[in-house]
Amino acid sequence: MLAVTIYNMEGNRVSEMELNESIFGIVPNESVMHDAVVNYLANKRSGTQSALTRGEVRGGGRKPYKQNKIDKSRAGSIRMPHWRGDGVVFAPKPRDYSYKLNKKVKRLAIQSALSSKVRSKEFIVVDEIKLEIYRTKSIVAMLNALGAEKKTLIVTPSIDNYVFKSANNLPAVETAVADSLNVYNILNCDKLIIAKEAVTIITEIHSQ
Questions:
Q1: Which mean pLDDT values do the consecutive 10-residue runs of the chain (208 residues) have?
Q2: How many other CB atoms sit within 10 Å of the CB of residue 26?
Q3: According to the model, what pLDDT value does residue 69 have?
Q4: Strands 2-7 and 13-19, how do they pair?
Q5: pLDDT of amino acid 162
Q6: Burial 101-118, CB ≥16 within 10 A → b, else e
Q7: Ordered DSSP codes for the chain
C-alpha cells in the first residue's frame, strides 16, 4: 500500500495513512491530463468576442469616386476591409467553445494528476484544516510550517468560509472543495495541501 505522513497545521507529524493506489499511485498519463486541461480552459472561455463584417458596417453604399478620369483607386465602397473604419475580414462572432470529455477520461486524468503530485512529493496531508476566525496570518503560518511558500492549492472536505476567505488574501494560494477538484488546479500548484477527510471523499468519488 501507499503510505503518506499526516501533519497538523503547525507542521508536526501526527500519524500516517494509506492511500488507494488505484487513485494516488498509478503511472500518470500525460496525454490524458493534457486533454483535461485543454477541456477545462475551453469550457471557461466566454466566447463573447464580436466584430462587424463588411456587410454589417454602416454606410458604404455609394461608390466613393468616379470609375474613370480621376486620379483615385477604383474603389467600390468605403467599407472594404483595407479601408479605415471598414468591416473585418472573417470577423469573430459569439460562439460556444465548451465540449465534454468522456467520464473514464476525466477520471483517469484526475487520478493521474493526483498520482503525479504524490510521486513528486508535493502532496501534503493535514489532519484538519480549520480556523475559528478570519485570519490570513494563520494560513501563512501553516504554509511556512509545511514548506509551501510557492503556489499552493488547499483542499478541504467542504466549504469553510474562514479558511477560504483567509486564503483569498494570498495571491499564490488557491482553495478547492474535495468533490469539485479538477486537473487544472492540481497541476497548476507547486504544493497540494489536503485535509485528511478530503482524501477520503476523493477516494470514494473516484473509486466508483
A1: 88 90 93 96 93 86 81 80 85 93 93 94 93 93 91 94 93 92 94 94 84
A2: 16
A3: 74
A4: antiparallel
A5: 94
A6: beeebbbbbbbbbbbbbb
A7: -EEEEEE-TTS-EEEEEEEPHHHHSSPP-HHHHHHHHHHHHHHH---------TTTSS---S-SS-SSSSSS---S-TTSTTSTT-PPTT------------HHHHHHHHHHHHHHHHHTT-EEEES----SS--HHHHHHHHHHTT--SSEEEEESS--HHHHHHHTT-TTEEEEEGGG--HHHHHT-SEEEEEHHHHHHHHHHHT-
Cell of 86: 471598414
The model's pTM is 0.82
In this prediction, residue 116 carries a pLDDT of 95
76: cell is: 467600390
- pLDDT value, residue 152: 95
Q: Are 109 and 187 in contact (CB under 8 A)?
A: no
- Taking the CA of residue 39 as centre, how many other CA atoms within 13 Å lie in the half-sphere pointing to its CB? 17
